[in-house]
Amino acid sequence: MGIMVKISFSISKGDTRTVDVEEGATAMEAAVRNAVPGIDAECGGACACGTCHVHVEEAWRTKVGGRTPMEEEMLAFGYDVRPNSRLACQIRMTGELDGLAVSIPEREV
Ligand code: FES
Q1: How far is the CA of 98 from the centre of ligand 1 (A)?
Q2: Residue 107: is its pLDDT beyond 90?
Q3: Cα-atom radius of gyration of the chain, to the nearest Å?
Q4: Measured between alpha carbons, how far is residue 74 from residues 19, 51, 71 in Å?
Q5: How far is the CA of 74 from the centre of ligand 1 (A)?
Q6: Residue 69 is part of which domain span?
Q7: Which tens digit of pLDDT belongs to each residue from 12-61?
Q8: Atom of ligand 1 nearest to the CA of 52
Q9: Hey, which of 40, 51, 81, 91 would you mutate to test ligand 1's pocket, going by the most ligand atoms within 8 Å of its Cβ?
Q10: How many domains, in total, are found in the chain?
């Protein structure tokens, strides 16, 4: 097993799940493996469904980086898309991202 890093999912006000995931997995995989609600990941991580949409906490935006052109296309149809919106299946967890905090748009929960 590789190095584990932490990621927190804020599900609704006052409900946050912090889970451990192996480096190299995506934020979406971290959510699905731990049954975090609101990340349906219908397309299995192919950047083709938009159901893994999250808002990246401001403090983490630079480290996480921007959206890919494919994500832009998916998010064009998304609900509550903000400048800090990302698709969790496109965020690969590294040591740099240990402690990452994201929140799940309300309607997805
Ligand atoms: S899991 Fe479908 S876009 Fe991320």
Answers
A1: 21
A2: no
A3: 12
A4: 26, 10, 5
A5: 9
A6: 4-108
A7: 878 999 999 999 999 999 999 999 999 999 999 999 999 999 999 999 99
A8: 4
A9: 51
A10: 1
Cα of 88 vs centre of ligand 1, distance in Å, is 7
Residue count of the chain, please give it. 109
3-state secondary structure of 82: coil
Which CATH number is 26's domain given? 3.10.20.30
Amino acid at 91: I
CA of 68 from ligand 1 middle (Å) equals: 13
Query: Whose C-alpha lies nearest to ligand 1, atom 3?
Result: 47
* Mean pLDDT, range 79-89, rounded to an integer: 96
Is the distance from CB of 78 to CB of 32 less than 8 angstroms? no
Q: What confidence category does residue 109 fall into, taking pLDDT thresholds of 50, 70 and 90?
A: low
What mean pLDDT is reported for the chain? 94
Give the predicted TM-score (pTM) of the model. 0.94
